[in-house]
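Exercise: predict the structure of this protein bound to 3-acetylpyridine adenine dinucleotide.
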Amino acid sequence: MGIIGAGMSGLCMAATLRRAGYHDFTLYEKADEVGGTWRENTYPGLSCDVPARFYSYSFAPNPDWTANFAPGSEIQAYFTGFADSSGLREHIRFGTEVTEARWNGERWQVSLSDGDTDMVDVLVSAAGVLHRPKLPAIAGLASFAGSAFHSARWDHSVELADQRVGVIGTGSTGAQIVSALAGVAGRLTLFQRTAQWVFPMPIVSYSRLGRALMRRFRPLNRASYRFYQQLLEQSFGRAVVERGWRRRLLATLCRLNLRLGVRDKELRRKLTPPDQPMCKRLIISGRFYRAVTRHGVDVVTDAIDHIEPEGVVTADGVRHELDVLVLATGFDAHAYLRPINLIGEDGVKLEQVWADGPRAYRTVALPGFPNFFMLMGPHSPIGNHSLVAIAETQADYIVRWIDQIARGDIRQVAPTERATDEFNAAMREAMPDTVWTTGCQSWYLGKDGLPELWPWSPARHREMLAGDHTDEFVAR
Ligand code: N01
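Solution:
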């Protein structure tokens, strides 16, 4: 078996295989360390906006989280520590990128960047969603004379203290960076194209005693995991996909947060989004409004016209002189497996199948691509939810098919076109109830303008991946 990627979901898949008694598998990891997005993102202020107790594998709780929202470095340490303690490292081929995977009628022929070729019976993609940085198409960007870098390629050699720092982008990343750099940079300028809603959430540190209790009484960890799971599923998890009081309540809390957090009317006007809370991915932060109201922090809402060696010039003709320019402009969220060349039955390329946008069977499989499965595939429930929990559900489902293959009941299996079409049609039908279709631009939307998210609750995702659905697959 082959797994593409040793990030959060690749490790999850590997651990699930191990727990099911499998040892014959390899993870292909392009980098030289595990962790995926948590390895690549190291920007100041990086933290997870899902509570850490729930952003952990349910089978590997971490009693040592230092706060409710753990910093990125701690999460990366959790994954590297897990790779060590679980013994999974021996299965990982580091520095090995999968360039092509081709179904030869019996098995997957996997071509690797080091020139090798592997043959595997089952191939699982755990290649991640948000890892291809999107650079803005702004005239003159390359001419900037100071340091410029994308948030996921942070240059730690660049001095920030007392420097004039500009940040382009006000998504979750931009908000975290601005919160961390306010008061550090000499002058901080946030270039905001569209204001975003912010849900207030304080960061609470866990005491040593609390951590010791978690270590001593393991059921406490489990209870805490379930508590946060229920809290998120019953609040954000339902508010985004159901009209009703939950959506109204969370929206009101966001509006109140802005009203109380930003007293200056002009600044508040600038920071008032044109769309409904949660239409774009909600920013979770108890620090952002405090940061932008600080002395030495400017929010610029005039459109960026071009960039010059000295700084950013906005449409009103003002030149904002800068030493450092941070591009917190997001990721290509629709690239999925690209640039891997995936070739299924009859030489059909994934590129052709996904010409109109990525689609899958129940987020995990593809017709015409036998014995191929995905974690975090198209339409996975990735709103403000724990991707770790979603990956576990998908890994459990995939292992059940692997069990059948391993027992010799079947040799190859892929979902039918019909079942995949029906599933996608049902999803399209459910989209109008979601908050993502209420009128905003975001990385959630695909080419056809429809959200590429799961339009039902996370609980429904578990239910939909609970059975085997043998009647919706072609198995030989
Ligand atoms: O990216 P984004 P992100 N000129 O796409 C602006 C996850 N995440 O990296 O809104 C000017 O959300 C763009 O403006 P607009 C999380 O899932 C998780 O912040 O398009 N501005 C927007 O403001 C998140 O949703 C954590 O008008 C330009 C910003 O750049 C996802 O990553 C932490 C521009 C991009 O926002 C992506 O977040 C951080 C241009 N040419 C991130 N082009 C956790 O805590 C783009 N923008 C788990």
